[in-house]
Structures are given as C-alpha cells and as structure tokens.
Write a structure and sequence with these properties.
Low-confidence stretches: none
Strand order of the largest sheet: 4-10-9-8-7-5-6
Number of strands: 15
Shape: globular
Distance between the termini: 27 Å
Helix content: 25-40%
Radius of gyration: 21 Å
Order of helices and strands: HEEEHHHEHEHEHEHEEEHHHEEHEEEH
Strand content: 15-25%
Number of helices: 13
Length: about 425
C-alpha cells in the first residue's frame, strides 16, 4: 500500500485530496460493504461521495453494463442512441418540469457548467446569484460560483457572482430567528441585493448543501425566492447532484421541499443515477434548453454503456421503493445518531433528512469549527470498520453520512454503533 501511495504522490497533483493518514485502496464491494487491498471489510456510509446510490456490484446494473458493452460501447451524440432517449424520457417525466428537454454530460461539474451556459445565454447576462457555503463543481465556471473557499482555488471567473443568505440555517446573521422570520429576512436580503445589481441570469442553489456539510434552509425558502426571481425574470437552477433520486426520503428531488412556487427552470443531476458510472445531466423546459444559437454535442455524455447503467439503476430504485427505504431507515438512523451524539461536547448539531445526515463538530463550548476532531473521528471510524465522509463551510468539521439507499435496518444499527464508538474516542 505504501508503494502505491508513493507512486500516487509521484504522478498525481498535490491538490487531489486523499482521506486518511494511511490512504485506503478499495478493491471491490458488494451491497453496502467494500473491501480494501488487505482484505478488510468496511460498512460504507459514504458511497463514493453519494455516488453508489443503490448498492455496490448491483447485479441488475452490472448485467446491463456488460450486455451493452458487448454490443457497442460508444457512438457519441452525433448518432441516434436508444438507451439515451429512453433514459431522457424517464428523467423528463420524473423531473416535474413541463415540456422538458434533457442533455447528458459525464459529471455534475459539467452539468452545472451547462446550466450556467443555458441561463446566461437565455438571459443575455453573466451575473449569477449563488448561495453562501455552496459547492457546484471544479470547472473554471463552477469554482467561480462556489461559495466555499476550501473548494474555490481562484477568484477569476467568466461570471459575476453575488452571494445570497439562506443556505445555512444555524449560522450567520439570521441564525437566531425562527423559521418564518429567517425566510422573511433572507427574502428581504435577496430583494435588497437585486436593487443594486444589473439583470441577473439565474440563482443556482443546492436544496441541501452537500460539500458544505449537509446544511439546508427551512422548507419553502426557495419557493419564496422563486416568487421574487419570477418578478425579475431570473431563472432558478436547482443543483440536485447530491439530493436527487429520493435520497432525502421525503421527496424524489430536493426542490420539492420548496415546490410551492413550482418546479425549477433548470435542474442538474449526476452522482447517484449512474451508481458509479459517469452520468450527469441537465433538465430544462424546451424554451430554455433550445436557446443556444450554435451547434453542440457531447462526445461521452449519453454513452450507450452509461445510459444502460442509468436505466437499470433507475428501474431498480423505483421498483424497490428506495426513496421509501431512505425515509424509513434514514429516520431510524438519524434517531440513533442523535442518541449516539448525546453528551458528546464536541457535537454542535446533528442535521439532515433521509440518508443524508451531517454531524457538525466544534471546539466544546464554542461555535468554532474543529476540523482536527472531524479528522480524528474519520480515522477512528475507519479503524472500527466504517467509512464516512466530511465537509463543512468555514472549515471541514462536519461528518457526512450518506449510505446506499438500500441500507438495511440492521446495517443502520451497526453503523450507528460504530460511529458512536468513534465519536467517544474523542
């Protein structure tokens, strides 16, 4: 393993982050478990950054990939592609967006990049509204609208970005307000901001901020924003890269917790739909999607193999009601996590919904983020046989829990116990 780590450091950029003091090589997986190069088994509560959505080595997906690979692997969007059309039809129907068109990419970064291109072209403006504490990808345009310094390496951008309050409920100037007053204050801030700017193209927002530490506003905030945006003709882009496909349990899309003013103009997705295969995409109503006045294709977006995987994965998700499982087992898991965190001074907050749970750690008795504690719990959990993630805004001090949506009750109980032991090692 040390040999592989040395080889990694010799050829991979320093800024490609690795978890753990002794980095882990995962060699295979099954269900909710993975194995490392030494043969040790782990319960996976992170799913490759929320990407292994249904299960590792899901037979239905691996069979679909193998069969499609045996026919043709690649053709590009220059040719008709039956699996791509079939998956686009299903996603358009599920999106909630009327007269929807779907464009496939290879990642969430590229999906958000495309959404920004559509919005700025449609509106004739390069001004974007984004949320503080947000994350939207690693391309030149998406780091420019990411409201999280740890993941935005440059201030240069083709876009002018203005940041709005509201993505984090329990921090910031409105944290002490009740939910109703919080929403009112954030809407007033948005109204005031729009009074000082040129015409903005769009607001892009994650319904639950992923890299930011699974933070979210009260339900209905983005609906209240939408009413303001509509008066100005500004588009709403819902970044569903981490919240889509039923992970929150209560809704199929995260935007539906804010759906009182209707669906978003543009929806972006990725991660879970491919269950590990490289699929991203954009859904928009035809008027917006078709606004580009130049040709475009995608060489690898919508490839026959990834589309076959997406179709099989989506079918499995719907047929086995994994959204319902996320709601039921996720509800049990967050109860167990809250009980495990009771009496641990470093735990500031347990938050989330469905199988998307965050544990924010701070220096005991303060609101100061404690990234060292988060790193220590991550290490201890691994030693106990549990893989989790981390994130957070001002500093990386939130533990992120996001198992595959097929998680069982017994695995939820086991994972909560392993997590408790790791937390108590602090």
């Amino acid at each position: 393993m040390n040999d592989l780590y040395d080889r990694h450091k010799a050829v991979i950029p320093d800024w490609v982050a690795l978890y753990y003091r002794d980095p882990l090589e995962i060699t295979h997986g099954e269900g909710r478990h993975v194995w490392d190069a030494e043969g040790r088994r782990y319960l996976d509560f992170f799913g490759g950054i929320l990407t292994t959505m249904t299960a590792h080595a899901l037979p239905e997906v691996t069979k679909a990939v193998a069969e499609q690979a045996g026919r043709i692997i690649h053709s590009s969007t220059l040719y008709l592609n039956r699996p791509m059309v079939e998956l686009a039809e299903r996603i358009a129907g599920l999106s909630g967006i009327p007269d929807a068109r779907v464009f496939f990419t290879t990642s969430g970064t590229e999906a958000n990049d495309t959404a920004l291109l559509l919005a700025t072209a449609y509106r004739g403006s390069n001004q974007i509204l984004a949320m503080r504490n947000s994350y939207h990808g690693r391309s030149f345009s998406t780091v420019g609208i990411t409201g999280n310094r740890a993941w935005s390496p440059t201030g240069l951008s083709p876009l002018q970005t203005l940041y709005v309050h509201g993505g984090v409920r329990t921090r910031g100037p409105y944290a002490e307000y009740n939910d109703e007053r919080f929403v009112e204050a954030c809407v007033a801030d948005l109204e005031d901001l729009l009074g000082h700017t040129r015409n903005a193209a769009a607001l892009i927002a994650e319904p639950i901020q992923g890299v930011g530490g699974f933070t979210s506003p009260p339900d209905g905030l983005y609906a209240a924003f939408r009413r303001v945006l509509d008066r100005h003709g500004i588009l709403w882009i819902a970044d569903e890269v981490q919240t889509g496909w039923g992970r929150t349990g209560e809704h199929f899309w995260g935007w539906q917790a804010h759906g009182q003013a209707g669906p978003p103009d543009i929806l972006t997705f990725a991660k879970g739909i491919g269950n590990g295969m490289s699929i991203g995409g954009v859904v928009a109503r035809a008027e917006v999607m078709n606004c580009l006045d130049a040709n475009s294709i995608s060489t690898f977006g919508g490839s026959p193999v990834t589309m076959a995987a997406g179709l099989a994965n989506l079918s499995y998700l719907l047929e086995h009601d994994l959204q319902g499982n996320a709601r039921r087992v996720g509800g049990l898991l967050i109860e167990r996590v809250r009980a495990a965190c009771a009496g641990i001074p470093a735990v500031r907050e347990v938050r989330g919904r469905g199988l998307m749970i965050g544990i924010e750690l701070t220096e005991p008795g303060t609101d100061r983020a404690d990234p060292d504690a988060a790193a220590a719990v991550l290490e201890a959990a691994r030693e106990n046989g549990l893989l989790i993630g981390k994130g957070g805004g001002h500093d990386t001090s939130t533990l992120r829990i996001a198992p595959p949506l097929s998680l069982t009750v017994s695995e939820a109980e086991e994972g909560a116990a392993l997590l408790e032991a790791a937390l108590r090692s602090l």
